[in-house]
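quick q for whoever's on today - can somebody do inverse folding on this one?? i tried earlier but teh output was garbage lol. tokens:
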């Protein structure tokens, strides 16, 4: 089953960390056909890879191979390095294996709107971080991700659906909503200053999509906690895809279809428990 989009935007995969859900993103890209794929920052986590505690299972290599295969098959692949992979900002303007490296990207959506895509760490200087959020982003964040991985493993073992413990905990952190709101306001202000009607970013691991005061703000989220992407349809409409939930829905549809087409008395292997 293939999903066709004009543009797909993903960010904050953080390859090199054990928290990266590369297998989910690989599954998503295996289901996608897109004219343009934008890797909007923090594809790699160079910070973690410089330490001795980095992680690189085979799924992460397969993910990179899938991206390169998409580029070879005609998908335009644009890579905007973020703060965790800023190493690649030294190579802006270079194309590697068909992948273009740029600092930010201006484009026109199918409906004529002018869009600006950038990672979003540019707005850190405009938004004051609370001490608690900074702590959560370092040692506390790594602990939370460890608990979230255990939670995901336990839910798979018990046959339960995907649910992010990290997302639930962060909603309770004092000041989190205030920080996110200020970040979104800074992004919209920057878009207006740049003459853009749409601003698309990542960085804060909080997927969102809304329009306010003539500017549409979109954040593609991440592939650490939420497994989300932003997609543009052929008519220019933007949509957030939450792949953990969407993939389960698609699989249910496939299983139901196979079970319905199986001869009477025959149990389809994929539908069987």
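ok took a stab at it. sequence:
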């Amino acid at each position: 089953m293939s999903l066709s989009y004009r543009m797909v935007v993903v960010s904050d995969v953080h390859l090199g960390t054990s928290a990266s859900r590369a297998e989910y993103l690989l599954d998503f890209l295996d289901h996608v056909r897109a004219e343009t794929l934008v890797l909007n920052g923090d594809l790699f986590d160079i910070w973690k890879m410089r330490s001795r505690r980095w992680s690189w299972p085979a799924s992460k290599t397969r993910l990179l191979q899938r991206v390169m295969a998409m580029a070879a098959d005609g998908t335009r692949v644009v890579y905007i390095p973020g703060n965790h992979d800023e190493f690649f900002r030294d190579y802006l303007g270079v194309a590697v294996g068909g992948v273009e490296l740029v600092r930010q990207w201006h484009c026109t959506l199918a409906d004529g709107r002018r869009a600006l895509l950038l990672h979003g760490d540019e707005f850190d200087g405009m938004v004051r971080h609370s001490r608690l959020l900074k702590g959560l982003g370092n040692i506390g964040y790594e602990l939370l991700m460890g608990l979230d991985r255990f939670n995901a493993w336990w839910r798979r073992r018990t046959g339960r659906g995907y649910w992010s413990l990290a997302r639930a905990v962060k909603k309770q952190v004092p000041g989190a909503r205030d920080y996110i709101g200020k970040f979104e306001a800074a992004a919209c202000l920057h878009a207006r200053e740049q003459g853009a009607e749409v601003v698309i970013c990542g960085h804060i691991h909080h997927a969102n999509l809304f329009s306010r005061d003539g500017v549409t703000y979109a954040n593609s989220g991440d592939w650490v906690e939420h497994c989300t992407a932003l997609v543009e349809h052929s008519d220019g409409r933007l949509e957030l895809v939450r792949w953990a939930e969407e993939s389960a829905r698609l699989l249910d549809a496939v299983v139901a279809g196979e079970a319905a087409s199986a001869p009477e008395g025959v149990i389809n292997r994929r539908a069987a428990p």
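fwiw Helices lie at 22-30, 46-49, 58-72, 131-136, 139-157, 165-170, 176-193, 243-261. also The chain has eight helices and twelve strands. so keep that in mind when u check it
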